[in-house]
């Protein structure tokens, strides 16, 4: 009898959050049941009407408490899943309202729960790598997941066929999933016996296509809004394009002319030359290779930060469990990763855009994020009454209800109200012509010229306090890597323009 498996005497001392391993579900006739026999609770704000309708359905979870291995049984009424963590988390709600996290199923129960586990891991993968569009590798990757590796049958598209309604509902409630290219690809490839209509798939695809890629709502140079131009390249940053546009925010701007601003497409110098900054160390690196690039972009659909593999590999273990060396090697080899910005640096959990307390406050200067509820008290909001408090947080500037912050690692400049604006670097290509001896031992002057760019600012500019007042500040950075012959040809053109007598030396330079 079920009552013979009652909880032990220390029930009253049990914590509100439990974790069960070696679990299985059944009814009052000992018949095994899958999770889908229970109503799903999408969020804590969901009404319990559908759950209350299931009062007559007696469903029980059996297992062993982790880690003390006490055998337990609980009557349950609903289930949920979390896709925002490093691994998907399955939970069951008991009749008294407590939640139990599920670790690993009982061996004999694996066949019963197999397809729903595959579906949840598929959704987690689709959310984690929303830019992937090919479904070729998904099943190989899922078969290597520890929780699914014991199955004799490799995960496949057919495992999702009975859970299309769940997939559809999850996409409706998750903005990242709704725009996942992989999810849309799978829905198009869906077996004929699925229960989601072609019209519904088209509607989801249309909605995803109608939503433009997220653009930065504030200027990358000064962190203020206004009249901005968005880069059409990979970085998706926005800028005050002209001096006039940046004047109100004391922003140095890009210094573009109206004619340049009116062009159909705009690429910042980082995207134009495929030289992007690492968001961790601030140094530039080449990003133009699919494999072996110096800096690699985060794979999240809502993130456009680049990182050196070794920099992000050092940061990620602070929020998720990872082997630093192995992670660096995998990222350098082209494997996808989600950067630390997508984990709260306090509780290590992901963002829940539907819950205000679990929405992110994101630092504009480094890869650090907090849930609203996890924000340190020292990070004060702009609307606080005390005039002596320096604000570090602003609402209403970023999309998705995120909070713009400067974390405590960055000193606020009293005049600007932001940290010193020296954080943006553009690539700087300098060409130095070495001395070229002629047949008569002539020496031509060394040329130190900066290739001009349409922004009229020195590439690799850093925007400091004087920049905020409207002036441009030049800086230095290592020369870009150009092919040797291209450099020689450029030298020849420059030398030819300065001294016609160098014609006799052209042949020597090309050799």
From TrEMBL:
Q: Which domain of life is it from?
A: Eukaryota
Chief location:
nucleus
Q: Which UniProt keywords apply?
A: Metal-binding, Methyltransferase, Nucleus, Transferase, Zinc, Zinc-finger
GO-annotated molecular function: methyltransferase activity; zinc ion binding
Q: Which residues form the Zinc finger PHD-type domain?
A: 218-272, 277-343, 344-411
Extract the PANTHER family matched here. PHD FINGER-CONTAINING PROTEIN DDB_G0268158
Name assigned to this protein: Putative histone-lysine N-methyltransferase chromatin regulator PHD family
Organism name: Lupinus albus
